[in-house]
Batch of 2 targets.
Target 1
Amino acid sequence: MKPTEKPANPHFSSGPCSKRPGWSLDALKGAALGRSHRASAGKKKLQEVLSLSREILGIPDDYKLGIVPGSDTGAVEMALWSLLGARGVEVLAWRASARAGRRMRRKQLKIADPQGHRSGLRRPAGPRRGRLEARRRLHLERHHFRRTRADADWIPDDREGLAICDATSAVFAMDVPFARLDVVTWSWQKVLGGEAAHGMLALSPRAVARLESHKPAWPLPKVFQMTKDGKLIEGIFLGDTINTPSMLCVEDAIDGLKWAKSIGGPQGARRPRRHQPRRARRVGARTPVDRFPLRNGGCALDHLRLLQFTDVWFQSLPADSQAKTIKDFTSLLEKEQVAYDIGAYRDAPAGLRIWCGGHRRGDGP
């Protein structure tokens, strides 16, 4: 029978999250429009984003924090193109999207002997599924590029390399240990429900020192350049963005950050998120769906739920037929206004993905 109950909010895929409760276009009426972003009004808005982000996320005072082009992807590419090459690289990957990063380092930047450690999205057998055990074998003199949202106690304070973390899905949903990371990147989309195209970049003093002492062997596009004559361009981290930002997006980010602050920052956002995975588990208990949260030593990545159908008929289909079935299913969900953009990643097994964001109970699915 066709279900009669629908989610209160169908915007719960793992793309940009739903806007905060009560959001409307009125939230953007204070935007500094029709002015240069370098004028005092625009610059003040950009600096407000930086100060609110530092306060809410607990970013150390000696870390540089800037707004950069290209969303989180632009921020992490900017860091990799600028910092890699001085040492070997090891990649700790929990997501399929890290494959593109490995290709970039091996083929484009031609990093010698890059080492990769990953926990795949396909469900491994046994009770230790999805865990990454490679931490024991890491060479800590190398740079470490992490696409993970887990603990960082294993990163020593006296490391020689840099720890680079692509944390876009985690930064407002989990306690990111900034003090043990040298580069952290994210966007305004996850949890905040902010608009795309702008990224955030946090640099430790060690990362700044590396920027000023290391000149990459490859040319850097203008939007990636953070130094001039061997010195950090300080203005990037004071609200002087490299290119022209959208002040509407900036205003929306301010609104989202103020909302995050009002519910207690990441700690407040995590409280309702704890209930959402349990809802996903209840759905799985009633349907032929298998849950395989990625895990790292017992730390479940509860902010993202990946669901795969385990029905015998579905599993007997070839891969292209599974993908088409899921596409037809997600199209039906969208038509019925049940869920939007809920298909799994392209490199993941055919299935669904659910972003467990930071909205209060009753505001989500």
Target 2
Amino acid sequence: MNTSPVANEGAVLDQCGHYFREHGFAVLRGVLSASEAELCANYALIQTATPDYFKFEEGFGSQGRYADALTECLLLRMLPIMERVAGSALFPCYSYLRIYQAGAELRRHVDRPSCEISTSLTLGMDSPRPWPLCLESNGNSVAVNLAPGDMLLYRGVDLPHWRDRFEGTHWVQVFLHYVHADGPFAKCRFDGREGIGPFDPTRQRRRFDPSQVTAETADAEGA
């Protein structure tokens, strides 16, 4: 899946990387074209007709899918961009596809170690107004509006982030998570799996339980 010329522009990525290293987050617009984002959003919505494909997340007012095949492809596709912005080699950990529903809220939290360097990518929505993703950076609260194809890059284990109540019908988001290849959470590579791809816990085993990796973080899949 090709990125747009904006995301491929080296100067833009370098500027984004400088901002990311100073503030802990940055925004890239148009990483997916409008048609690519729409395709991914429609894919997610169609999958809701498959029994038990998504897990209902009662605490969020949403439904989610860990390591969906399409979003795992996005996880690998975005790796060079993420490394350019982060300024170092990264290991991919996992992807998470989520459909927020009317009334959804996301409490203020930080993420578990496998989400050291993360991105939240908007795919599509049915909403009367923007629904910002909020975070705290350098003591300031920031509200970021993301159109389909836009993504927020952020240090998930460091920056508290949240969303207020959603007033639309649905909002489709994908989260892509990485760790520094030479950092303290490098052992979280693949989120304990043997490799990238759909994961069935009834047939596949993890090298470790990612929830047992110690850090002062909440166990959340994304924002």
